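BUG: 3D viewer hangs when loading the predicted structure for this chain

Environment: internal workstation, default settings.
Expected: structure renders.
Actual: progress bar stalls at 90%.

Input used:
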Amino acid sequence: MPDGCDRLIAVVGACQGCGACLLTCPAHAIRPRGGRLAVRADLCTGCGECIEVCPVDAIELEGGVR
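Structure tokens produced before the viewer hung:
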């Protein structure tokens, strides 16, 4: 996990459900939920791969750090 971060969170309002993060996540921590995608904090390792591939910047580190 990156310093100062407990988990990654999906900003659901921005997520368009494209699946780029789902396909990229090495921990398989991203799951469909309500037509969008959400990060499971219990599985997330904090690698940040999902942040890099999200075309709409819908995922950020908790606390607003990117």
